[in-house]
Records
---
Amino acid sequence: MEHEDKHSELEIIRESVIKLCADFPNEYWRELDRERGYPTEFVQALTDAGYLGCLIPEEYGGSNLGIREAAVILQTIHRSGGNGAACHAQMYIMGALLRHGNDQQKQAYLPDIAAGKRRLQAFGVTEPTSGTDTSRIRTWAERDGDEYVVNGQKVWTSRAEHSDLMLLLARTSERGSGPKPHDGMSLFIVEMDEALGNGIEIKPIRAMLNHNSTEVFFDNLRVPAKNLIGEEGKGFRYILDGMNAERILIAHECIGDARWFIEKASTYAKERVVFDRPIGQNQGIQFPIATSYAETEAAALMSAKAAQMFDAGQSCGAEANMAKLLASEAAWKAADACMQTFGGFAFAEEYDIERKFRETRLYRTAPISTNLILSYIAEHVLGMPRSF
C-alpha cells in the first residue's frame, strides 16, 4: 500500500511538471540556446511551484521531499525537451548545508532559498590546474580574525552569474598536512551579491552548449568566519554527501533525454517515407532505436534503485555511480540513433535535436567522467588495485 501511495505521489508530481513545462516549449529553449541566455522565467516558475525547495525541510519553508521526487522533477523537465541544468545544483548541493550547517546558517539561508528570494546554484570546486583531482586545488582561505581571506580561481563554475550564494571549497591547510590528501579543505557559503566586484570577478565561458559556465577569480575576498560550514579542514567530506545525490539526479535527467530522443526517432521513423516506404520498416533504422530503448529502461531501473536507497539512508555509492554511467551512455546512444534517423534534418535548429544532442553529450564527461566511474567500480566494488 505504501509503495502504491508513493507511486501515485510521483505520478502527481510528474503530471504537474509536464503542465509547467508546456508553458516553456521548444521555441523557448531554442532561443535561449541561440542567445546563451539563462532561463529566468522557467527557474522562477519552478521556484513558485515549490520544486526547487523540494529537499528543504518544512520548518524552513520547503517541501521536505526526497531524492526520488527531485529525480522525477528533473527527469520530466528533460523528457519534455527542456533542461534542468539551470537550477539542478540547488537540489544536490543543498545536502552540505542541510547536514553540516549549523542552526544559524540554516535559519539565515534556507527560508529565503525555499521562498525563491535567494538562489543557491553555484558550486566552486573545479580549478584549471587540478581538474578531477580535487585534492590539488590551490584556492586558499586564510583565517584573519573573524574572517577568511580567499585567493584563487575556479573554472566551469556554472550559474555563478545567476546565483546569490555559492558553496566554495578552498584549502585552509596544505595538502599532506593530514593523513589523507583531501584533508585540509574547508567549505564556505559565499554571498555572491555582496562579493561581486568586491573580491570576486566572474568571466563567462562560451562553450559547446548553453550551460552558463564561468571562471571565477578570488582576489582577497573576505568571507565571514560564521560562513564556514562544519569544521575547518573537513570540507571535502561534506561535499561527498552531495555527490551521490548529484549522480542520481543527473542520471534521471539523462533518462529523460534518452526517452525524448527515442520518442522523436521512433515517431519520425514511422512517418518519414523514402523509396516508397517508411524508413522505420528498415531494420537498420529499427535496431539502433530498439537497442536504445532497452538500454534506457535498464538504466532507469538502476537509477530508481539508487534513488530509493539514497532516500532510505543506505550506502549507495556504487549504485549512484552505475546509474550515472548507464544513463549517460544510454542517452548518448539514443541521441546518436535519433540523429541518424532524422538524417540531414537532425542538424537543423528547428528540430531541437542538435541542441539536445549537444546537451546530453556533457554527461559522459561531467560531473564525473565515464572512466572515473569505471575506476571506482573496479577499485571499490570489485576490489582491484587503485589505478591512479
---
Amino acid sequence: MILTKSLFLIVLLFSILIAAGCITSTSVSPPGNPEMTLVSSFEGGERYLAGNYSVIVLEGSYREMGRQYGALMKDELLSEYAMLTNALGERGYSIEYLRTYVANGTQYQPERMKEITRGMAETTGLTEEDLALLYYGPALYISMPAGCSYLAVWGDYTPDGSVVLSRNWDLPDLLEPFNQYYVLAVYRPTDGSNGVATFGPAGARPETLMNSAGLFIADDNSGQEVVIMENRPDLISEFFRLMLDYSDLAGLKTGILATSPDIAWIVDAGGPDGAYVFEKGLNETKVRTGDGVVAAANHFIDPSWNLTTQPAANSLLRYANLLSQAEAAKGSIDAAKMMQIRDVLLTEGGSTFLHSELEGYLYSSNHQVVFVPATETLWIKVVDMGWQKVDLAPLFEM
C-alpha cells in the first residue's frame, strides 16, 4: 500500500513536471519575430500582438482553422457584427435583405473558404449567414468606390535586384469604424496547400494576400462602369484559392488569366521573379509588366482598350507620381525606401491619402503594405498608426 502511494506520488510529480515543461517551452515570441508576444491560444491556433497589430497563426484543416479564427477573434467579430448591422439597420436595411444580398456573392466561394466559415460559426455563435455579412462588411458599409494603388520594383531599381512590392488600400474615412478590427491572419493548412497570409478587418473579404512561396496578390478598382456578370465568382474571393494553389509567378499568372471576373478589376501580382498588373475586363485581360518597375492606380493604362471615357484625375496623378518617385529613387529602393515612398501624400507628389478631401468625402490610405517576396518579409500599416514589420517565413514554418 505504501509502495502504491509512493508510486502514485512519483507519477503525479512526473506529470506536473511534464506539464510545467510544456508551459515553459511555449515561446513568448514566435520564431523570427521577437517583437511579437503571445496573447492567447485555442486548439493549436495562436494569437499574437505585433506592436499594435493583432496576428493570428492558424493550423489544421480548413474547418479547424476556422474554429481557431473564430475563437481567437471572437470579441472583435461579435463587436464588428453589431457595429455593422446597427449602422445598416439605421439606414433602413433589414438583416433578411442583407443576407439575401450577400448570399449572391458567397455562393460561388471555393469549398475550402466555406469550411473556414463553418468553423468560425462553431466558435463565435454567429451563423454562416452572419459571417457572410461580415465578409462583405466594408463594401456594404461605405457603398462607394475605393481607390488603391500598386508599385513594384526590381532589377536596376533595387540595391540587389530583388523584388519589392507595395500597395495602398484607399477608402473613404467612413470606413474608420473597421480600423480597430484589423488582423494579420496566417493560415497553415495541413492538406499540402501553400500557407497564406491575409491582412484586413477581421472576418472581412481580404484584398491583400501573400503566400509561403513568396507570391503576392491585391486589387485596385478599375475605374470602369460597374457591370455585374451573373454566374461568375467574386474575383477577390478567388484570391485565397489562387494563393493556396500556386507556388510560382508563372502559375499565378496563368490562374489569374483563367479566372473570369464578375466585374472589371485591376489585379496586382508579384513574386521573387518579378511583378505584373492585370487589367481584367469582363471578357478580356491585358497584362502589363515593365523593365524593373510597374505601377497601377484606378484606370486601365493599355491603349488597346480604346476607352472613350477619361480616367479620374486623381488616379492619373497617383499613377504618374508613383513612377516619378521610382525613377527618382532608382537603384536604392529597398523596403525602407518603399515605405518612405508610400508615406508621401498625393498633395506632396506621392500617392497616399491622409484624411484628404476627394469628391466631397475625406479619404485615407486605409491600409498599406510593403512586401519582399525573396525573404517573405512584410511591413503593414493602418491609417494613423505606424509601420510594423512581420517576418512571414518563420510563421509559415512554425
